[in-house]
Amino acid sequence: MSRVPDDNLPTGTTAGAPQVLLNHHLKQLKLPTVLREYEKVARECARDGVDHPRYLLRLIELELIDRERPTVERRIRAARFPAVKSFDTFDFTAIPSLNKMLALDLARCEYILRRENIIALGNSGTGKTHVALALGLAACQKGFTVVFTTAAALANQLLEARDEKRLLKMQRELAAVKLLIIDELGYVPLSPTGAELLFETFSQRYERGSTIVTSNLPFEDWTQVLGSERLTGALLDRLTHHVSILTMIGDSYRLKQSASRRRTAGGAEQNQATPDEN
Ligand code: ADP
Ligand code: MG
Q1: pLDDT tens column, 186-221
Q2: Which residue has the CA at smallest separation from atom 9 of ligand 1?
Q3: 127 alpha carbon to ligand 2 midpoint, in Å?
Q4: What's the rounded Cα separation, in Å, for the pair 275 and 100?
Q5: Would the CB of 205 count as within 6 Å of ligand 1?
Q6: What 8-state DSSP symbol labels residue 208?
Q7: With a 6 A CB cut-off, is 125 part of the ligand 1 pocket?
Q8: Using a 6 Å cutoff on CB, does residue 254 contact ligand 1?
Q9: How far apart are CA 98 and CA 164, in angstroms?
Q10: Percent of the chain's residues with pLDDT above 90
Q11: In whole angstroms, how far apart are CA 242 and each of 127, 141, 196, 213, 238?
Q12: Phi and psi at residue 247, in whole multiples of 5°?
């Protein structure tokens, strides 16, 4: 056997030295995830017959994910989502009018690089807000800044900002956001000035950033919310120049859920009342 005896190693080194040195270097290079995971991932890769470049890739990807996590979480907090929802919990079979391929493709966020917009149209409870939230979350994960608001809240905030002489600052901030999500255009009619300021927001973002709008109203009824035919035309012109439209017409998911809960509860009562029939 030609085993190298330990006393042939350079002075000051022992058999465990590579590990000690590696740990030291990884700390110095600030790669805590690689340090924590390299032995475990090495065992997994040996077991699965994964080669060295792929082993290294796995480790570096883990380091990147850990490093990105706080930034992604910060972006999610900054987006002010009313709830964090994703496509993982979205049941596409419940809403056949929605083009699933298109929705999942949009989740890759390439439209944001192209500064294109998305409009989700459909009646109440069909999952428009859920889809907008899922697209917003995907954008945060891909590294884009996102702000989520409703049309009514945004119009009010813009009016407030104007009264407090900080409208320009707010408009500049809104124009800089990579993805602005404006939920629920249509439930509340806007004041003429509110509509005008909302239009300005769209105008300032035109071909500079992406906007998602959800509405329960078809385009021809948007005048009811914005008040003026001229303003609606100009807004739609900008919004729909580069746009993907998600059609979400169907039964309300909320109503369907509660109806099926009632059926289950009713069925259970019936079963108890007529045990002989089972
Ligand atoms: P909308 O904004 O169109 O009124 P929401 O997105 O608020 O509808 O949906 C109402 C509720 O039902 C939410 O809790 C949402 O998460 C849920 N929901 C709607 N559609 C679906 C679906 N297809 N799969 C899973 N949950 C859904
Ligand atoms: Mg909604």
Answers
A1: 999 999 999 999 999 999 999 899 999 999 999 999
A2: 127
A3: 7
A4: 43
A5: no
A6: T
A7: yes
A8: yes
A9: 42
A10: 82
A11: 23, 23, 22, 13, 8
A12: -95, 120
